[in-house]
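Priority: medium. Attachment 1 of 2:
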């Protein structure tokens, strides 16, 4: 990627650099989404249960992606603007809270870095037009969903469904695929995993995946069209199998302990978006 950037025509680096900086800032916000959205869902569930039981709401304070102000989860120290600079603040603080010196998760700068690098690479590849900007948003949403699924084994509807509708809107004028292919892709993506889910459940009596995986693959189908569904499923399954076997063999991961499938779907979807043409040509020539 870096070597390719040096061969861009004069002036072409400007949108790439802007995308990288914006990606770092958005990555900081994605960390908030990753941390707070599962807690927002839990609080909403707690309040619903309390309401159905005729009890007072379990949570009455405001808690969303904006309020309250970000603070250290260990001591409650409010995060200042200077302490919230992407990557830089983490390095200056030595990866520790400025107040209580508790260790700050390395995930925060990693998410910021990945968000910035992906934004830069996508703008370099697709340009700074409608396709490039929408592809950057696609990548950012996948980053948030990947981390949330790794933490909670949940894929929130508040992320999967907007991604699906955005895919259909982006393809109204065929940014990536014709709109009919996008619509069929959304349906095919959902139904393919739905079928696998019920086949596995009827055969083993267990649930092999969650409904969030259906919706995520439907969203990927809306962006990439029905023709890429086999490639997404194949890539995600192969990577998932390799990682799963490695965890069992090397990390002593329990065989009965579930492994989230969403991150592999997200990675496969991003790969297929970036290299859709060569993957499509290879897949169909192979078949």
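Attachment 2 of 2:
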């Amino acid at each position: 990627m870096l070597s390719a950037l040096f061969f861009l025509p004069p002036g072409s680096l400007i949108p790439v650099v802007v995308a990288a900086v914006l990606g770092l800032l958005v990555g900081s916000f994605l960390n908030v989404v990753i941390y707070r959205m599962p807690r927002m869902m839990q609080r909403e569930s707690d309040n619903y249960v309390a309401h159905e039981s005729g009890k007072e709401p379990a949570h009455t304070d405001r808690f969303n992606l904006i309020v309250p102000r970000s603070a250290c989860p260990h001591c409650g120290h409010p995060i200042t603007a200077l302490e919230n600079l992407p990557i830089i603040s983490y390095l200056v603080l030595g990866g520790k809270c400025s107040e209580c010196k508790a260790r700050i998760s390395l995930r925060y700068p990693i998410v910021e870095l990945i968000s910035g690098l992906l934004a830069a690479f996508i703008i370099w590849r697709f340009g700074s037009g409608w396709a490039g900007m929408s592809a950057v948003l696609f990548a950012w949403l996948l980053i948030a969903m990947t981390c949330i699924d790794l933490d909670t084994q949940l894929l929130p509807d508040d992320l999967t469904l907007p991604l699906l509708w955005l895919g259909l809107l982006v393809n109204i004028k065929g940014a990536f695929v014709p709109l009919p292919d996008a619509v069929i892709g959304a349906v095919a993506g959902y139904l393919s995993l739905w079928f696998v889910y019920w086949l596995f459940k009827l055969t083993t009596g267990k649930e092999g995946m969650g409904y969030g995986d259906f919706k995520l693959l439907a969203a990927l189908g809306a962006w990439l069209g029905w023709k890429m569904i086999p490639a997404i499923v194949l890539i995600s399954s192969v990577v998932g199998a390799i990682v799963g076997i490695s965890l069992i063999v090397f990390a002593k991961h329990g065989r009965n302990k579930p492994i989230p499938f969403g991150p592999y779907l997200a990675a496969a979807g991003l790969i297929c978006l970036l290299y859709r043409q060569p993957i499509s040509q290879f897949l169909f020539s192979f078949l």
